[in-house]
């Protein structure tokens, strides 16, 4: 499996992943185009195997371009047939050094990573085991259910 920066040619395939991963959301293609076009504030990566794009991750730089950067994992999605096979973990682990390299090009370093996810989402364990993220707060009834805010501190 290869993790690389998303290219414009990947948008249709990534939108298909989005559509199946986030069934309550709509306009998958438009959502991804908006994020893709926000480079370098937003960094989009895909996971690709011999069948094509099987997942993606969106990292978003928060609160301006700073020397010490707080990044959000805005979205992580894996196609249903590839879930539970380590694709999400690979997206985080293999895109993180690429994020840090991009920040270094701007004379910045990564300070913290935060992510929000549904309180009942098993991905919490993924964020904890890969990043050391801990639940800092629970926000009731934010989107479709309670949402937890997780932060991985001092990850540089």
From TrEMBL:
InterPro entries, per the entry: Acyl_CoA_acyltransferase (IPR016181), GNAT_dom (IPR000182)
One Pfam match: Acetyltransf_1
Keyword set includes Transferase: yes
Keyword Cytoplasm listed: no
GO molecular function: acyltransferase activity, transferring groups other than amino-acyl groups
Keywords assigned by UniProt, alphabetized: Transferase
N-acetyltransferase domain mapped to chain residues: 1-155
Domain of life: Bacteria
Protein name per UniProt: N-acetyltransferase
